[in-house]
From TrEMBL:
Any one GO MF annotation of this record: ATP binding
Family designation: Belongs to the cation transport ATPase (P-type) (TC 3.A.3) family. Type IIB subfamily.
Role this protein plays: Catalyzes the hydrolysis of ATP coupled with the transport of calcium.
Full protein name: Calcium-transporting ATPase
Entries under NCBIfam families matching the protein: ATPase-IIB_Ca, ATPase_P-type
Segments for region (Disordered): 202-225, 1035-1056
Biological processes annotated in GO: regulation of cytosolic calcium ion concentration
Top class in the EC scheme: translocase
Entry EC no(s): 7.2.2.10
One Pfam family linked to the record: Hydrolase_3
Membrane-spanning segments: 24-43, 244-265, 285-311, 720-741, 797-815, 873-893, 905-926
Feature: compositional bias, Low complexity: 1039-1054
Length: 1088
């Protein structure tokens, strides 16, 4: 005590006897708080990961495959396929196992995921019958006998080569390996040079086109941060810098004030025995500085985003949205355009024939079987039964009185239903001519737009049945069956008349028109079946049917919501333009009298291409703003349109485009779009693979739900920010001014950590789990340039901060008089907690609690309690926090620097807190438009998006901190390398490695191929060697198999992949020259 007196810090006798024993409490309490924060964060991360794994496994379990067992065609999960199963493969499948093609037609496989070759491989029973797992069926159908599954299949073997741990590999193989599992395995084993090299071609295997363009495209796709991430990163950095500056100033002011007060004003000497006392003071000041920093940095931001996204993803499952990529959910909230398919998305995908043109008569409903000539009827039944996939069937309804179940291709189901409506049956015909007896099949694809099947007649001649889009098949017809069932000549002018009188009226009723035809061939000479153009001509038309696919009842309302929310809906379909226009009017995509465009694919292409046939962006810009319907479009047209809209600079905001797709060839468009929706029921595996979200019910109205959730994520983050920044500003200013004026922060370190826990972790949980409301769809999308913190939010933040600061400073300086208690200001080191500071702490927390309710609204709404009970998590957290606060204040004691309060003091604290709600109403009355001086924050400007050059480099995205770190690492490695290089040069010259490099070797082995400069340099993934390369020198085998990783810095090519170093040893270290021998004739010199 005497010593302290001498050191100039009068304690006023408040020193506690057991002070020494209680010294550990504060440190332990801080440690405990930190552990709490870390555990809560870790728990959140874990639950997010678990949820994501759950989604992944659900996607895998949902992947079913059709097999024939015991004569029955059944669908089983991919994991249950065994050797010996007969699997049915069809267009769009991702093969889950290896097998032998035993029967089928026109099967073409894309094997690029294994070979890197993008050409489709034709499979036949006698020539190349092997089908391999991981490859895609691009055309045709058939059956295969499964010969290898799991680890023994082709993909399994590759995984084994990569050495992806035992169990993991079994898991991965079971799920019919997907391309991203190849990539993850690739990344995991990148150190294993040899294996990684063998796998290199897989990288470019993206849906067939394994060329560089695709690689760049997928790169750009990954590169662009989601809008929200970009804005948040920027904001967090700004806040962090401000906090750092504040905390530094706090410490400097405290130290200076103490030094001046002690040594200048009181003229004390720095005595040796005083050093421990002074050090204690400095430590205390440092802790206050750290506290200010901790409170200033919003580490709850990433947490809030994660919780919000994870929560949304979980809830979206109930709304039939299976989210495969987390940020797709948030991107969807900014969508400005949706390009949707027609069939199955806007319509029910339950095809029924409602009109027919048979025997020169146009029937407005299904004709009576007796009114159709017997010959025509027989031909019609055969043509439909034989010329459709045998997997397509109409089964009895599951429930009594329900509709018959349609299995397989829906258009074919409609035609089979037509046969049943004509009181005929297709099964006997199929039993008579089973699938094996079909002579030749031209399967349907997007180029042909028709399907034809050839059968051999009993007399040895051939008959071909054909069906397809009416305008395409009718062009190939030269005869038509008349009222007696006899063929008559069908001239082009008859065709034009038929188009006018039959097809257009059907199409204007929104019907899809299908023409059914046939042709007979002589047995000798046998026609050249490969000459498709000659075969598919000179047909005889049997009938034209109009198939209705009714609009889903909920779609018009969903589209109206989209339009109100500022989202343009466009229909992209393969159907006839009149059908498409009629459906678009029924859905409400177009309204009569509006200025819009409906184009066919051909016309669209004619308008967007120049004389050389190249697509021009300016031409697309003239079309897309008014385009609402694109009919008879190919998948390429869809991709062109999506790319054109995304790349357009016509509007100030970049368009954010969502696309729906179900076919294999929709893959590129789904990948290109900002958000790709694949159909869960009708979608092929390839489409699901390329998508971001899978619609489990194939319904357009689920997309609207996704928009709602996306906007909700954005709003949740804004609510959290509004709350968090208010607390930040107040806590930092209180700690800062308090420290400067009274040499001690009114809010102690442990209290600050508790406040931090409330405002970061709990608040992010409470505010990020608000359920979405319909009101979210009443505003336009925010777009990329809209700041995260709007003027209204800034007004709320500053307004509430003013209220809180006024009250806290009032309590700090005159609080002791108001409550008639001892003042807590200027208390000596280690004095017991005062009631005065406890009241300040308690009031502060109460104000935050009530302000959390204010933060629920960010657009200046008055009713902050609106829908509060719809969010049980919010209520639980607010009440829970209140309860814990009571415990801390009443029983926290020394560790929390709290002294128990009386009831009347508690009432005052709660009353001041309640004042927040009243003050919120006052702030809401001030019109934001008047407050011009308020700045918005968290804006993402166009310029800050990743520049082009950076996109084109094949370099992973690195943030600035990491780049700085890498620069440091590079300098460190250079130091090591200089020593290493000396040794390596000597070794290189001593061994015959150098001559070996000079000899032009044959490029048979894939390893040699990879070291060749054209291939190697472009493909090397830059990363920094984190181990000393000298270990590799000792083991020549190791050296051969692994390429030292290259560094990021352009000037430091010295450690480039698979390259030997030679150095000019005569130079001094300061201007060390390093030459790099790449290959005969290549010599690069860099100077460090």
């Amino acid at each position: 005590f005497i010593m302290k007196e001498r050191c100039g810090t009068a304690t006023g006798g408040a020193e506690d006897e057991g002070e020494a024993e209680a010294g550990w409490i504060e440190g332990a309490a801080i440690l405990l708080s930190v552990i709490c924060v870390v555990l809560v964060t870790a728990f959140n991360d874990w639950s997010k990961e678990k949820q994501f794994r759950g989604l992944q496994s659900r996607i895998e379990q949902e992947q079913k495959f059709t097999v024939v067992r015991g004569g029955q065609v059944i669908q089983i999960p991919v994991a249950e396929i065994v050797v010996g199963d007969i699997a049915q493969v069809k267009y769009g499948d991702l093969l889950p196992a290896d097998g032998i093609f035993i029967q089928g037609n026109d099967l073409k496989i894309d094997e690029s995921s294994l070979t890197g070759e993008s050409d489709q491989v034709r499979k036949s029973v006698d020539k190349d019958p092997m089908l391999l797992s991981g490859t895609h069926v691009m055309e045709g159908s058939g059956r295969m006998l499964v010969t290898a599954v799991g680890v023994n299949s082709q993909t399994g073997i590759i995984f084994t080569l990569l050495g992806a741990g035992g169990e993991e590999e079994e898991k991965k193989d079971k799920k019919g390996p997907k391309q991203y599992t190849f990539c993850s395995a690739l990344l995991a084993k990148q150190q294993d040079g040899a294996a990684a090299m063998e796998m290199q071609p897989l990288k470019s295997a993206e849906g067939g086109e394994g060329d560089d363009k695709d690689k760049k495209k997928s790169n750009m796709h990954k590169k662009e941060k989601s809008v929200l991430q970009g804005k948040l990163t920027k904001l967090a950095v700004q806040i962090g810098k401000a906090g750092l500056v504040m905390s530094a100033i706090t410490v400097i002011i405290l130290v200076l004030y103490f030094a001046i007060d002690t040594f200048v004003v009181n003229k004390k000497q720095w005595l040796p025995e005083c050093t421990p006392v002074y050090v204690q003071y400095f430590v205390k000041f440092f802790i206050i500085g750290v506290t200010v920093l901790v409170v200033a940095v919003p580490e709850g931001l990433p947490l809030a985003v994660t919780i919000s996204l994870a929560y949304s993803v979980k809830k979206m499952m109930k709304d039939n949205n299976l989210v495969r990529h987390l940020d797709a959910c948030e991107t969807m909230g900014n969508a400005t355009a949706i390009c949707s398919d027609k069939t199955g998305t806007l319509t029910t995908n339950r095809m029924t024939v409602v009109q027919a043109y048979v025997g020169d008569v146009h029937y407005k409903e299904v004709p009576d079987p007796d009114s159709v000539p017997a010959k025509t009827l027989e031909l019609l039944v055969n043509a439909i039964a034989i010329n459709s996939a045998y997997t397509t069937k109409i089964l009895p309804p599951e429930k009594e009185g329900g509709l018959p179940r349609q299995v397989g291709n829906k258009t074919e189901c409609g035609l089979l239903g037509f046969v049943l409506d004509l009181k005929q049956d297709y099964e006997p015909v199929r039993n008579l001519i089973p699938e094996e007896k079909l002579y030749k099949v031209y399967t349907f694809n997007s180029v042909r737009k028709s399907m034809s099947t050839v059968i051999k007649m009993p007399d040895g001649s051939f008959r071909m049945y054909s069906k397809g889009a009416s305008e395409i098949v009718l062009k190939k017809c030269s005869r038509i069956l008349n009222a007696a069932g006899e063929p008559r000549i069908f001239r082009p002018r008859d065709r034009d008349e038929m188009v006018k009188k039959v097809i257009e009226p059907m199409a204007c009723d929104g019907l899809r028109t299908i023409c059914v035809a046939f042709r007979d061939f002589n047995s000798s000479p046998e026609p050249d079946w490969d000459n498709e153009n000659d075969i598919l001509s000179d047909l005889t038309c049997i009938c034209v049917v109009g198939i209705e696919d009714p609009v889903r009842p909920e779609v018009p309302e969903a589209i109206r919501k989209c339009q109100r929310a500022g989202i343009t809906v466009r229909m992209v379909t393969g159907d006839n333009i009149n059908t498409a226009r009629a459906i678009a009017i029924k859905c409400g995509i177009i309204h009569p009298g509006e200025d819009f465009l409906c184009l066919e694919g051909k016309e669209f292409n004619r308008r967007i291409r120049n004389e050389k046939g190249e697509i021009e962006q300016e031409r697309i810009d003239k079309i897309w703003p008014k385009l609402r319907v694109l009919a008879r479009s190919s998948p390429t047209d869809k991709h062109t349109l999506v790319k054109g809209i995304i790349d357009s600079t016509q509007v100030e905001q970049r368009q954010v485009v969502a696309v729906t797709g179900d076919g294999t060839n929709d893959g590129p468009a789904l990948k290109k779009a900002d958000v790709g929706f694949a159909m869960g029921i009708a979608g092929t595996d390839v489409a699901k693979e390329a998508s971001d979200i899978i619609l489990t019910d194939d319904n357009f109205s689920s997309i609207v739900k996704a928009v709602m959730w996306g906007r909700n994520v954005y709003d949740s983050i804004s609510k959290f920010l509004q709350f968090q920044l208010t607390v930040n500003i107040v806590a930092v200013i209180v700690a800062f001014t308090g420290a400067c004026i009274t040499q001690d922060s009114p809010l102690k370190a442990v209290q600050m950590l508790w406040v931090n826990l409330i405002m970061d972790t709990f608040a992010s949980l409470a505010l990020a789990t608000e359920p979405p409301t319909e009101a979210l769809l009443l505003r336009k999308p925010y777009g990329r340039n809209k700041p995260l913190i709007s003027r209204t939010m800034m007004k709320n933040i500053l307004g509430h901060a003013v209220y809180q600061l006024t009250l806290i400073f009032t309590l700090l300086f005159v609080g002791e008089k108001m409550f008639k208690i001892d003042s807590g200001r200027n208390a000596p080191l280690h004095s017991p907690p005062s009631e005065h500071y406890t009241i300040i702490f308690n009031t502060f927390v109460m104000m935050q609690l009530f302000n959390e309710i204010n933060a629920r609204k960010i657009h200046g709404e008055r009713n902050v309690f609106d829908g509060i009970f719809r969010n049980p998590i919010f209520c639980t957290i607010v009440l829970g926090t209140f309860a814990i606060q009571i415990v801390i204040v009443q029983f926290g004691g020394k560790p929390f620097s709290c002294s128990p309060l009386q009831l009347d003091q508690w009432m005052w604290c709660v009353f001041i807190g309640l004042g927040e709600l009243v003050w919120g109403q006052v702030i809401a009355t001030i019109p934001t438009s008047r407050l011009k001086f308020l700045k918005e924050a968290g804006r993402l400007t166009e310029k800050e998006e990743v520049p082009e050059e950076e996109l084109n480099e094949d370099v992973e995205e690195i943030d600035h901190a990491e780049r700085e770190l890498r620069r440091g690492q590079i300098l460190w490695f250079r130091g090591l390398n200089r020593i290493q290089t000396q040794i390596r040069v000597v070794k290189a010259f001593r061994s015959s490695l150098y001559e070996g490099l000079e000899k032009p070797e044959s490029r048979t082995s894939i390893h040699n191929f990879m070291t060749h400069p054209e291939f190697r340099i472009e493909d090397s993934q830059p990363h920094i060697p984190l181990i000393d390369d000298t270990d590799l020198e000792e083991d020549p085998a190791l050296k051969k198999n692994s390429s030292p990783p290259s560094s990021l810095n352009k000037n430091n090519s010295a450690i480039d992949s698979g390259i030997n170093l030679t150095t000019d040893t005569s130079k001094s270290l300061s201007s060390l020259k390093t030459s790099v021998i790449l290959h005969p004739g290549y010599f690069i010199t860099t100077v460090f």
